[in-house]
Design goal:
Cytochrome c-552/4 domain-containing protein, EF_Hand_1_Ca_BS, signal, 16% strand, Type 1 dockerin domain, 22 strands
Length: 674
């Protein structure tokens, strides 16, 4: 089944007034002003007459956080003592694994507060005002999903940002505290959203992607089903909850789908429409849309797919990697007077939802007041993010040579990730930084040097908005940098950073997970560019050869690292050009101030190599008759690879021409032997 996103007839003209808003967006600037955090204790829909589909995360936390965790939030009242038994939510090692507290410092909890998301959506709206309805719908399915579902249940429309009507009356968007759905928006991807997603046949399919999750919006109160991973549960506290007139009642029910990757795929496979310069839609069906991010489909095409039978040794679900496990947890503080009625649960999934976006976690933590952030748990999430990043890949030196006056070595990047690396949104990149130092410790050659502002020396995209770095199998110059990334192209084949102009990828050489066959990959996850024909760019790894020529004889060391950036410099600069948008300026201020623009994923062991003089075949430090004779002894044979010292002229064969060139390089007259 396909779904069209063409604007309804007659819709476009009345949206033209939005141009006025976006040309004067500073009217609604909130720079440096405190933002509303919303009320995480909401329990009724914000519209009159609606059904209580959702509740705020604080209500869940009152039973699913430890009593101490309940008091650790930014807005916790003075003298807070928490609620329920103090035994709940500590594992066998005494670690507090409270659900809401762990979740509160994640990208999911703060999905609508994300300043990059706000800035990018506002930029897309500015460039494509006629597509406002589609943008507001698509971008809230996964960043403000409770708003999206709640509004659709009663056939109401909404906007993310403030707009003005034909009478110049300001209409508050869902990010405004005066909007009736603001609390739903502020609570992000919240508990009662994910745990109400049904085990629908579309899960894991194209129709189930791009925010295609299904929730039964006809249920309320004790009939509202909350799916969980345990079949042995004590349902009484949720079914019989009398608080707030019973508005918090729900029916807990076991379902295996809540622990499966298909659930994650509803938002982590995302396809967006492509539009021409005039805002006409080029891709009217879901199949034809641009694959903005496809981590779930990448996982399906890998050895990590555990939906296959039999599952392989690497098979793991998304949750098994992104939610660490522990044992011995009472998963509720209730019934507080009868903990014997509960049992400790093993294989408990800690709700840290850890990924690689340390940049944004740092921005959330540093700008809590401006962004309305409630969590004080970012230190733990950032530490877990470091661990995740440093387990994502390894970097090895597989061979090295210092023959013929040049340094040659091969770096192998091994991916240990269940999807492409870097994953998801096409602002992200990973790159190899390599520095060669002489015996005095001075850098004599360097590729991939990262500047403090996030730009990378030699990367085309960082100096030319229309360019990008090709994929390399061999690097011979400092301005050649191996960058693992996806580069969007528009329908004219030109580089674009505007999402709705994205038509196809001009380059996608992101590292492949183990088991990913690039020859059989679908169009949505295919390898694009030079990596497609690079024989050593395969599932799980990539080999890159570095050849540094014209080095004086001596000892050298090589240091290499794999670097990650959530926001590539070229992407950032393109966004920052929209300086008339207050949300863009907000993000720029936060981005510029952050010290987390770059993280190290992996470091290779230091390589120590002695570089021989060109023509020094026997490695004694000079060129003489002994070396010439070694060449002549192998005359008219094939060279043993590019590093064969006897192949002085680098034509991959050993002949009289090599002996003649070696004679010209002799250290003493008549090639005398010392």
């Amino acid at each position: 089944m396909t779904r069209s996103i063409l604007p309804a007839p007659g819709r476009t003209p009345w949206l033209i007034f939005l141009v006025v808003l976006f040309n004067s967006s500073n009217l609604f600037a909130f720079e440096n002003l405190p933002a509303s955090s919303g009320n995480p204790s909401f329990y009724l829909p914000s519209i009159s007459g609606g059904i209580a589909h959702f509740m705020g995360s604080a209500n869940c936390g009152s039973c699913h956080d430890s009593t101490t965790a309940q008091c650790r939030y930014v807005n916790s009242p003075v003298g807070c003592t928490g609620n329920g038994s103090p035994l709940a939510y500590f594992d066998n090692n005494g670690k507090d694994v409270s659900i809401r507290e762990a979740w509160s410092a994640t990208m999911m909890a703060n999905s609508s507060r994300d300043p990059l998301w706000r800035a990018k959506v506002k930029s897309e709206l500015k460039k494509h005002p006629a597509l406002s309805a589609e943008i507001n719908d698509t971008c809230t399915k996964c960043h403000a999903p409770m708003v999206n579902a709640d509004a659709k249940a009663v056939s109401q429309s909404f906007n993310i940002f403030d707009t003005v009507d034909v009478n110049n009356t300001v209409l508050p968007g869902i990010l405004s505290p005066t909007n009736s759905r603001h609390d739903l928006a502020a609570d992000g991807v919240s508990c009662s959203l994910c745990h109400q997603v049904k085990d629908d046949p579309t899960l894991g399919t194209l129709d189930g992607s791009t925010g295609g999750y299904k929730i039964d919006m006809t249920l309320s109160g004790a009939n509202r089903i909350m799916y969980g991973p345990y079949s042995t549960i004590f349902p009484g506290p949720m079914q019989n909850n009398a608080a707030l007139g019973g508005a918090l009642k729900a029916k807990p029910q076991y379902s295996a789908h809540i622990s499966g990757s298909k659930l994650c795929g509803t938002c982590h496979d995302l396809k967006t429409p492509t539009v021409y310069e005039n805002d006409n839609i080029l891709t009217p069906t879901l199949e034809s849309r641009f694959p903005e991010q496809m981590p779930y489909s990448e996982w399906v095409h890998s050895a990590y797919n555990n939906d296959l039978a039999p599952a392989g040794p690497l098979a793991k679900s998304c949750q098994q990697c992104h939610m660490s496990r522990t044992d011995g947890v009472y998963i509720s503080t209730q019934p507080s007077g009868n903990m014997a009625a509960l049992t400790k649960k093993n294989n408990f999934a800690i709700h840290e939802f850890v990924g690689g976006n340390k940049l944004m976690l740092d921005i959330f933590n540093t700008n809590k007041t401006q962004l309305g952030v409630l969590s004080n748990n970012f230190a733990a999430t950032m530490a877990a993010t470091d661990t995740m990043l440093q387990s994502a890949a390894t970097l090895l030196n597989t061979q090295q040579s210092g023959a013929k006056g040049k340094l040659e070595f091969v770096l192998r990047v091994n991916s240990t990730t269940g999807h492409k690396l870097p994953s998801a949104y096409p602002s992200r990149r990973a790159l190899l930084h390599v520095a060669v130092k002489n015996s005095q410790g001075n850098v004599v050659w360097e590729s991939g040097k990262v500047n403090a502002n996030g730009s990378v020396v030699g990367v085309d995209a960082d100096s030319n908005p229309a360019g990008f770095e090709p994929h390399y199998d061999l690097i011979t110059a400092p301005d050649q940098v191996q960058v693992y990334e996806s580069i969007m192209g528009d329908n004219n084949g030109e580089v674009t950073y505007t999402l709705l102009r994205g038509h196809h990828y001009l380059k996608d050489n992101r590292l492949l997970p183990s088991g990913f066959n690039k020859a059989t990959a679908s169009d949505d996850v295919k390898v694009v560019g030079g990596a497609l024909t690079d024989d050593d760019f395969v599932d799980g790894s990539d080999d890159v050869t570095y050849r540094v020529a014209n080095l004086p004889a001596g000892s050298y060391s090589v240091q290499a690292e794999l670097i990650y950036q959530t926001v590539a410099y070229g992407y950032a600069q393109n966004l920052f050009a929209d300086s008339d948008i207050s949300e863009v300026n907000d993000f720029k201020t936060m981005f510029d101030a952050s010290g987390q623009k770059t993280q190290t994923i992996a470091q290779g062991d230091e390589i120590l190599v002695n570089v021989q003089k060109l023509g020094d075949i026997d490695g004694d430090g000079d060129v003489d008759l002994n070396d010439v004779n070694l060449i002549l002894a192998a005359k008219n044979t094939a060279a043993n690879g590019s590093t064969d010292a006897r192949d002085v002229n680098n034509d991959l064969k050993i002949d009289v021409l090599d002996s003649r060139q070696a004679t010209l390089l002799c250290s003493r007259p008549r090639c005398a032997v010392q």
